[in-house]
Amino acid sequence: MTDNTQSLSSNLSPVTRALLLLLLVAAALCQPMSGIAASLDNADAIPHIDSKARDVYFQLFLNAPQHRAFAIAPGGSWGWTQEEVNAEAAAEKALATCQEHTEQTCVLYALDDKVVFDRDRWQQLWGPYSKASDTPAEGTERGERFPDIAFINAQGKPSSIADLRGKIVLVHFWGSWCPPCLRELPTLNTLNDVLRDRLGDDVVLVMLQMRESINVSRKWIKQIGFTRLPLSDSGATAASHEWITLSDKTRL
User: Fold this and answer.
1) Which of 105, 165, 167, 210 lies at 20 to 30 Å from 22 by C-alpha?
2) How far apart are CA 74 and CA 25, in angstroms?
3) Please, are residues 158 and 193 in contact by the beta-carbon 8 Å criterion?
């Protein structure tokens, strides 16, 4: 048996990957699911994967000997394998390869000569909780209820995360003193423009400065020309201010 497994690799920072994931989530929510799965040779129908993955699927997977499988996950992770002893082994290997690169759940897209993609299950993978009736604990881990951070929004009004219930919310912590944050700003600026143009008020970007005052942040943003970014005020005033305030006035 020849092991010829391919998988997603990326040099993007975690925050940039999160930004791109949000864009994919937003796009998925605005597209009908009925058009995702198509014929086996239609690589463009595979959701979320990038151009490299589509090339691998079209040029390598479709020409690979059986037993073969191609797996994907929300956000863009993928994996595939070929020439396994049976279809079950191929499916297991592709799913494991995909899973190495994501915390999201990987599912099969194609197995041997069939598209086996389950549209209904794919939609369910986006839910943060196993049941709608679940009451998750508050925290910052995936699947936990995000803390209700209090802030002054970009329009200058007191607000909190709870006020944005029902919308897709991206909370971005940053500061002009943070080199990785500065490198990500062009991507963030582009993402903000795309989301605003495509989805309007359905997506809210909450940018919260840390360890500096909002006046310092706004001055720096103005100097580099990203004035369309909606800057909210976390309440931080100095480098020693290393916490955020919740709506109940406690600190996190």
Assistant:
1) 210
2) 8
3) no
User: CA geometry: angle at 24 spanning 63 and 32, to 5°?
Assistant: 80
Q: In the chain, what are the helix, strand and coil shares in percent, each to the nearest 5?
A: 35, 20, 45
Query: pLDDT value at position 130?
Result: 54
Among all chains, which residue has been given the structure tokens 């840390």?
A: 210
**Distance, CA of 97 to CA of 81 (rounded, Å):** 8
Q: For residue 35, what pLDDT band results from cuts at 50, 70 and 90?
A: very low
Q: What are phi and psi of 204, to 5 degrees?
A: -120, 125
Would you say 200 and 234 are in contact if contact means Cβ atoms under 8 Å apart? no
Contact 115, 40 (CB under 8 A): yes
